[in-house]
């Protein structure tokens, strides 16, 4: 349906001289792959950091993890991207500072790691902080204290009672990261010359390609609405006190 709208109503791209979907489709697939690996890298690490930090509130480990989370969230992508490129591409020569060749079957650890790490590090701290705050709130709840008084082990209390309730707020935040990733990867894709949605959007804006710009806007709005709907449904599922009437 979306491809039909993009092809039928918006016409051809004035710069690339092809149907809008012919240009936008591969770009969305490339960005979708990038988003998948960013989320796969960011979410598990952020949840573990937030849960461990919330379970050990006030400890040295909690303070260290909190400082790291704040530092990563406070560092924008264009700063962390440059720093990572200088360290791993210029000095150590472990990774490639350009992802222009990361297309199709040519995606490798060497040319795809930096575009994944740059947004993952930025979002990781935000999710970790939200998870920590939610975990602290749940661990101080009355039913957790009751479970501990009944003789349940600390690990059993966390896994059976605290974890599900503690993941409600982080789940909402994670779903809101998808629209941010779609438009937030613009900096990353331009910086590393990755042939994705963000780079197509910048090219369209730089060349006054109205049809392509309208298509990018439609895709962004559709993703925001879809993720908001999934977030509301998932929130009602995770929280038994909330049900869709």
How would you sum up this structure, described in words?
By secondary structure, the protein is mainly α. It has one domain (2-238): MetI-like (MetI-like fold), CATH 1.10.3720. The chain is 77% helix and 0% strand. The protein has ten helices and no strands. It has helices spanning 2-8, 20-55, 60-74, 77-91, 109-139, 142-149, 154-166, 168-192, 197-206, 210-238. Helix 2 (20-55) crosses helix 9. The protein is globular, with a radius of gyration of 21 Å. The protein starts with a helix and ends in a 7-residue tail after the last helix.
**CATH topology tier name:** MetI-like fold
Mean pLDDT, to the nearest integer, reads 83
The largest pleated sheet is described as: none
CATH architecture: Orthogonal Bundle
Distance between the termini: 29 Å
Total domain modules? 1
Shape: globular
- Fraction in helix: over 70%
Could you tell me the number of beta strands?
0
Order of helices and strands: HHHHHHHHHH
Attribute tags:
single chain, 10 helices, mainly alpha, 245 residues
List the helices and strands and how they pair.
Blueprint: H1 2-8, H2 20-55, H3 60-74, H4 77-91, H5 109-139, H6 142-149, H7 154-166, H8 168-192, H9 197-206, H10 210-238
Short recap of the structure:
By secondary structure, this protein is mostly helical. The protein has helices spanning 2-8, 20-55, 60-74, 77-91, 109-139, 142-149, 154-166, 168-192, 197-206, 210-238. The two termini are 29 Å apart.
